[in-house]
Predict the structure.
Amino acid sequence: MGINNQSLEKILISKIKQLKFLQLQLDEFNEIIEQFVDEHHNDDIKLLTSISGTGKASAASFLIELGDINNFATHKQLTAFIGTDPTIYQSGTSVNIRGSISKSGNSHLRRSIWHMAEQVQFGTLYSKLIMIKNEVKARPLSNQLLRLPTNSFVLFFLC
């Protein structure tokens, strides 16, 4: 099953070559970013990757977008820079009503933080599911091992 068309075949080959070239460029850029992060943010990367579910790529993205943490005197300045500070509505008798986040800051940094939080949450959930799965698997196996000498059918195949 297929289409025997020389022009479509050449187009497909051209697209495959473009894809391979783009993959090579992506690998080169990732290597450059990794070298930069290793030179400038190595301790921060180690600190962030110590959090379960946070990988080197997520930590590097966060640190590159954040820049120098020493530029922020307080956590409130950092929160405003990221854009996760709450909006406050004041109108007439309605005073100091908190709304959603302001989103006035760096959207790439917010996305990076959201991605890291999602991975931490998934990593924790995933590790709990693996523990439960292993416990569930271990119970029947231990029960079978305890019954093994009395099970003549199994002994027949073992001998």
